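From the methods appendix. Each design record in this collection lists the tokenized structure first, followed by the designed amino acid sequence. Records were kept in a plain field format so they could be parsed without special tools. The example shown here is representative of the layout used throughout.

RECORD:
FOLD TOKENS (72 positions):
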């Protein structure tokens, strides 16, 4: 899979293997870790967000990069 991250006229393209993670406890633990990083605080208890993830029908997409290209 490829993921493109545009920034005006520049962009980063990341190629790699993607895994969809839709089962708990792994889905909740990974999401909690991301929430903690985004809010620059302690991650929430993964058990406390399972209901939210189910309600929103959330799946974690984990990309293991093997190549990254930066284009200007």
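DESIGN:
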């Amino acid at each position: 899979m490829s993921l493109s991250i545009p920034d005006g006229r520049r962009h980063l393209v990341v190629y790699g293997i993607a895994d969809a993670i839709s089962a708990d406890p792994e889905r909740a633990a990974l999401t909690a870790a991301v929430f903690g990083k985004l809010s620059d605080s302690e991650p929430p208890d993964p058990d406390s967000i399972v209901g939210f993830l189910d309600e929103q029908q959330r799946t974690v997409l984990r990309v293991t990069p093997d190549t990254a290209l930066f284009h200007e």
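APPENDIX NOTE: Residues 2-71 form one domain.
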